[in-house]
Design goal:
By secondary structure, the protein is an all-alpha fold. It has four helices and no strands.
């Protein structure tokens, strides 16, 4: 019987309360970490999509500029031919340069207005830290 009495002398009340609190805190931290990882994944996917758009518009700008330069060279060659060919060549060259200018402007505005990478995740982590600090201070 003394073995069972020895088992009964272990502190159950405060120890179990502490264990329960630690378990709840750990569960809360795991849930917070899962939520933040999901947010991180979403933001990384958005970042990849935005990078793909930027690369596409950069390619369009470079391609249009290359075509524009090629056609500008043709304008110089055609300048010595009949009059209408020069006008058409200048118009087409101007159109390609206009496309290149619009693409470069769009690319510049996308890069300038781009949000900070992982901004949502960092904001949520800061909020979590503030909540935990407030909770610790209130005890």
């Amino acid at each position: 019987m003394q073995d069972s009495d020895a088992a009964d002398t272990t502190p159950k009340g405060p120890f179990n309360g502490l264990l329960h609190s630690l378990t709840q805190m750990f569960a809360t931290l795991v849930t917070m970490a899962q939520t933040r990882l999901e947010l991180l994944t979403t933001e990384l996917q958005e970042e990849i999509q935005q990078a793909a758009q930027v690369l596409l518009w950069a390619f369009i700008a470079l391609f249009a500029t290359g075509i524009g330069l090629f056609l500008a060279a043709l304008v110089v060659i055609f300048a010595f031919w009949d009059t209408h060919r020069v006008l058409v060549s200048i118009i087409v060259t101007g159109a390609f340069f206009a496309i290149a200018a619009v693409a470069a402007w769009y690319l510049s505005s996308k890069l300038r207005n781009k949000p900070r990478m992982l901004d949502g995740t960092l904001t949520e982590l800061a909020r979590d830290r503030e909540r935990l600090d407030a909770r610790l201070r209130s005890r």
